[in-house]
Amino acid sequence: MNSDHIQALFDRIAPVYDELNHGLSFGMHRIWKQMTVKWSGAKPGDTCLDLCCGSGDLAQMLSEKAGRTGQVYGVDFSAAQLEVARDRSERRCIKPPIHWIQSDVLNLPLSDNQFDCITMGYGLRNVVDILSSLKEIHRVLKPGSKAAILDMHRPDSAFVRTFQQWYLDEVVVPAAQRMGFTEEYAYIAPSLDKFPTGREQVRLAEQAGFTTATHYPIAGGTMGVLVITK
Ligand SMILES: C/C(=C\Cc1cc(O)c2ccccc2c1O)CCC[C@H](C)CCC[C@H](C)CCCC(C)C
Ligand SMILES: C[S@@+](CC[C@H](N)C(=O)[O-])C[C@H]1O[C@@H](n2cnc3c(N)ncnc32)[C@H](O)[C@@H]1O
């Protein structure tokens, strides 16, 4: 799938995205996102960036950490996802307001060395060029600061892998089918097969110029967080 197809896919599923994520992960996606925010090192007063922000969960969690003296930016190329993110944050009266930017994360309209911390949730697997994405994160991050990148993975354990594939085929795709989004959710499994392993992601991060890179498998290896320091 090219970038336009990915953008159109996330535009289409925007109305059901939050409900499906919550139901299919039994609410656990919020725990994995909280771990990601913690590992990004976000603290009061920080200027924070959430890439591939979608409906804005991670950006909202960052704003709780950054507080009134901090600033949070959320970037996504899907206008429909950003609309959900903007509505949700306005309804919650988040202060100061989050800056929502519609852009490709491979070409950010942001300055070099601007951010104290960066998060990305379920975005890296969907970008068309992972190394370029990591280089762009490196460019906008301040020296010494961290990015934490959460995504779904194929687990090492054959047993958990079989369970994951069963869950995708028998629970995720049928649930999406009932809402008219079969192909959109059937895309997850092949995207997992193409996604670099944690060890490969560490090597790519080093190639992008990061001084430290560690990958933490979570949820039995079905999820993982890459933590990188500029
Ligand atoms: C956070 C979730 C999904 C994000 C998501 C990512 C994508 O790339 C998509 C692409 C296309 C359409 C939709 C998405 C998308 O929603 C929700 C997680 C749902 C998972 C399928 C839940 C998997 C649960 C594990 C099998 C649980 C195993 C835990 C256990 C400890 C072994
Ligand atoms: C699976 S959603 C994740 C949303 C949110 N981070 C979350 O954790 O719920 C992936 C998001 O990445 C966005 N995305 C994918 N590739 C992108 C790119 N190259 N530039 C900007 N956004 C992108 C999609 O529009 C979509 O909203």
TrEMBL record:
Keyword field: Methyltransferase, S-adenosyl-L-methionine, Transferase, Ubiquinone
Gene Ontology MF: a single term: 2-phytyl-1,4-naphthoquinone methyltransferase activity
Catalytic activity of the protein: demethylphylloquinol + S-adenosyl-L-methionine = phylloquinol + S-adenosyl-L-homocysteine + H(+)
Pathway: Cofactor biosynthesis; phylloquinone biosynthesis
Pfam families according to UniProt: Ubie_methyltran (PF01209)
CDD domains: AdoMet_MTases
One of the GO biological process terms: phylloquinone biosynthetic process
Name of the top EC class for this enzyme: transferase
Keyword Cell inner membrane in record: no
InterPro entries tied to this protein: MenG (IPR032904), SAM-dependent_MTases_sf (IPR029063), UbiE/COQ5_MeTrFase (IPR004033), UbiE/COQ5_MeTrFase_CS (IPR023576)
EC number: 2.1.1.329
PANTHER family associated with the record: 2-METHOXY-6-POLYPRENYL-1,4-BENZOQUINOL METHYLASE, MITOCHONDRIAL, METHYLTRANSFERASE
Stated role: Methyltransferase required for the conversion of 2-phytyl-1,4-beta-naphthoquinol to phylloquinol.
Family: Belongs to the class I-like SAM-binding methyltransferase superfamily. MenG/UbiE family.
Protein name: 2-phytyl-1,4-naphtoquinone methyltransferase
Gene designation: menG
